[in-house]
Design brief:
Elements (H helix, E strand, L loop, with lengths): L12 H10 L3 H15 L5 H8 L3 H20 L14 H11 L7 H12 L5 H11 L16 H10 L5
Helix pairs in contact: 1-2, 2-4, 3-4, 6-7
Amino acid sequence: MARPFNLEISESTEYLSKSLKNARTAIEKERLQMIWWLKTGQVTQHKELSRILGRDASTVTRWLQKYRQGGLAKLLEVNVAPGAMPKIQGEVLSRLKNKLQCPQGFSSYGQIVEWLEQEFNIQVKYKTVYRWVRYELKATLKVPRPVSKEQDEQAVSLFKKTFPLPY
C-alpha cells in the first residue's frame, strides 16, 4: 500500500469549491480540482490522483511541490514566455507615426518597408508592417482612389455642384 499524503491544505472546502466554479482556464480547474479532491479526502494516493487527472505522476508531484512552496497562488501561477522584442519601437515608432500623419504619408505598405530599411536599417516583413500600421497604430495610407482616364471632366464638375460635400 502506498504511503499517505503529507500535505496541509490551508484553504477551506467552501473556498476551493467557489474557486473551482469561478475558474476561467482549464489549467486552473485541473489544479483546483486536485487540491479539492485532496482536501475532501476523495483521493488519498498519489498514483490514484495522477490516474484520475490523466497526468503523469511527475507532473502531479511538481504541482504539489508548487503548492507546498507558495500555496494556491503559486500553484495557479502560469509562466508565459516573453517573446521577441518588437523591431518597431521607441524612436522608430514615433517617427513612423509622424510620417503617417503627414499629408504626403506613404502610398503603400511596401514603401513603409523600404523607408524603415533606408532610414533605420531595420528589415521588417511586409506582413508585420501591415499589422502595425493597420491594427496597432490604426492608421490608413494616403492613397487617392483611382480615377478613370476616360472620365468626363464636365460631368464631374456638374456632380460636385449638384451634390456638395457636407463638410
